[in-house]
Amino acid sequence: MNRSLISTLLAASLAACATAQPVIIPGPADAPRIPVKENLDEPKRAPGEPAHVDASQYGLDPATGKFKHPAEVPAIPGTRPIKGSLDYLDQNAYLENTKIEAYQAQMFISPYHSWQTTVDMDGRRYMIQHEKTIYKVFDITDPRAVTQIAAKDWGWTSKEHPFGPLTIQWNESLKKNIAVQCYEVTRFGILKNKYLPEEQSKIASIKNAQLLRGFRVFEIDSPDPAKWKKISELPLDAYGSADKMPQQGSGCGDIPVYWGGKYLFVSGAPDDTFVNQEYPNYLYNQAQMAFDLSDPYKPKRLATWWVPGSRLGEEEEYKKNPRVGKKTAWMGARMPLFIPKDPEKGGKYGYAAMGGMGFHVMDISDPAKMRPLGKIDMPVSQAGTEGDNIDVTKVEKTGIVYYSGYPLNDDCYEPYKEIYSIDVKDPANPKIINTLPRPTPPKAAPFTDYCQRRGSFGPKRSGYWHQPGTPSDKYLIYAFYNAGAQIYDVSNPAAPKIAGYFVPKTVDPKMNLSFGDQTHGVFIEWDRNIIWVFTNHGAYAVSSSLLGAPKFDLKK
Hints:
Blueprint: H1 3-19, E1 23-25, E2 59-60, E3 67-68, E4 93-96, E5 99-104, E6 115-121, E7 124-131, E8 134-139, E9 147-153, E10 166-171, E11 176-182, H2 200-207, E12 214-220, E13 229-235, E14 251-252, E15 257-258, E16 263-269, E17 287-292, E18 300-305, H3 315-318, E19 349-353, E20 359-363, E21 371-376, E22 385-391, H4 395-398, E23 400-406, E24 419-423, E25 431-435, E26 475-479, E27 485-489, E28 497-503, E29 519-525, E30 530-535, E31 538-543
């Protein structure tokens, strides 16, 4: 990006922040009109999957201008533009109450997804950004002058062990930072549809994969993973061992929950009985698990909880779910329990997003005996992931958590994924009280609904539990795919509203033309009022007057 364009972006975003009015930053005047490259190579479907919806059953209502989502569709159908969809890739950016502080193309690692973890060492802050076969380590002490200090990319075809989601915390007993890293069987790139006879050999390759299906613990004296010292590892499979492969089960999913002390929480299927899973390219139904890391050299298993119906032998219970047989819904967890307070410090409750198997409140006051207290069978919303993320940053003060899934199909060809406000003041009787507003573009945009902008549209996640600092009492910030990063004001839980947003361009054509998962992550440095927005063409450091002035160092 040239200096003049950077100056244009920063000046326009400053105006947006100063005026609190929607601002459009137009793409370069000399940029070519980039036509959309359609992907109409639809995968073969198995009997029982939902039928495709006729074009007359969804799309923009000409009378109201509002988009009507289909009620139910198959998984992974390729692109499906509607009447009124843009036939080019939008190069504009849209801002309200936000300011671009910096754009970092070097922080691109994948057009689809990435995880982020930070660690402070020797007066510097480092971010490890990673995906299954790649990581990069950045010094982000000054977000305007990011430097890359380490990287590794071993490619999708490599037989080397994958790099998994992780968290880094200070361990007082060791007087060191330690990292806990999860490893899981591959979800994408191998199996497309387990229900088809021609795919059965791929199922065997996943089950026989030579990788640890569990977690490792490292002592770290450097932010570079190549220099970490492994001190322990444990498969989720209670009958397996770390040095004997293949183990059973899925391994553990996204972002382990660990505060540096005694307790570790992960999601995962601990053996091959956890297989009641509708989604066509995944084999397992993940449970919730707790471990004892009092001695990080010798992790111990504490407890496993799952929704009845998840395992072989529980089919009668499983069949009670209206999603069963349609081979579309994600069933079980993707993320560990969402826990607002460490049980060692008096935390009593955890909240479980179990996909098509609902929302659950758990008693985790004794993690060795964690037990369910209350649940909600959430509204059916397939395809896509129906329950993935729960924001618990407000629950200690308000009694409200925010529950959401995320879209997997492009062009809004699936039911809209709502963000549900759930009252959990009575843990045995949680109640949905409302949903957060659906984002809309500014009036001057060349489309009236984000479903016209191409790619996927809907909430991803509100960052991760280990973001540094104390989260705002007032604001929630969600990655929203083609609607960028959306800032919600939930100070009045009965009347939530959108207070600001940063919506970047759909793609950078010099980097790639993959426009499906545009803004697929946010990571908020609450202690510095900096919102990191991760896209298919790099990362943006964004500030907002709503949060307060950003800090570009680590001084208190």
